[in-house]
Amino acid sequence: MRRPRLSYANIVATMALVIAVGGGTVYAAVQLGKNNVRSRNIAPKAVKSSDIAPNAVTSRKIKKGAVNGSDIAVGILNRIVDVKGSAKGGPLTPVDGAADVPVPLTGNTTVTPGAGQVGAIAIEAQFTIAGMAAQLCSPGAIVSVNGEESAYAYVDSDSATPVVELENDAAGPFGLVNPNAPLTITAKVDGDSDCTADSRLDRLEIRFVSIR
């Protein structure tokens, strides 16, 4: 009987069988067509930031409402909104007179909005109303910009016993018509003769915020 000759095909097939039985790794070359890779083919958490091309994630690919303040770096927010000026005043007593009383301010009271910036002023005032002399005790804080009254924080109290009252307001925009022009902030208390003499302004906080 003639013995069969070993051919090249026989040798390759035998080697493949030995590798498979012996636990070796077999590599298969697979040709992937367009759109063949789907979500179910990707292991959870397998896609890393290094796998995404620069500028690949655009605005329309982000779900509306999915990004909130905690997802944005503080440095980015600071480039959008910037506190240009910060001033405070108080305490000031009494506030029972009918005449306005200037409030000395500490901090940065002069700011200059740049071109393309929109400025706004926010104020918050805290009063202690010790009692009423007659009717409603209603002192207020007035903030002016370059001498023009702009923001007001008035409190109304009908309590005959000491009570803390808080009020706030905002004004703006500034810098749209006349950018690069300095804005100087001043403040005063608008007293009320219906307040008792020991009523006072405890604290006045002012912020000039620039939105870019």
Task: Describe the protein's architecture and organization.
By secondary structure, the protein is mainly beta. The relative contact order is 0.22. It starts with 7 loop residues before the first helix and ends with a strand. The chain has helices at 8-21, 74-80; strands at 81-89, 100-102, 106-107, 110-111, 118-129, 140-145, 148-154, 163-174, 183-190, 200-211. It has two domains: 8-71, no CATH class; 76-211, Jelly Rolls (Sandwich). Helix content is 10%, strand content 34%.
Describe what is shown at a glance.
The protein is mainly β and 212 residues long.
Q: Give the uncertain stretches in residue-range form.
A: none
**DSSP helical segment count:** 2
Based on Cα principal axes, name the global outline: elongated
Number of domains: 2
Q: Gap between N and C termini, in Å?
A: 95 Å
Instruction: Tell me the strand percentage band.
Output: 25-35%
Rg over CA atoms: 36 Å
Order of helices and strands: HHEEEEEEEEEE
Q: Which percent bin holds the helix content?
A: under 10%
Strand order of the largest sheet: 3-1-10-5-8
| Biggest sheet descriptor | 5 strands, antiparallel
CATH topology of the largest domain: Jelly Rolls
What layout of secondary structure does this protein have?
Elements lengths: L7 H14 L52 H7 E9 L10 E3 L3 E2 L2 E2 L6 E12 L10 E6 L2 E7 L8 E12 L8 E8 L9 E12 L1
Antiparallel strand pairs: 1-3, 1-10, 2-9, 4-9, 5-8, 5-10, 6-7, 6-9
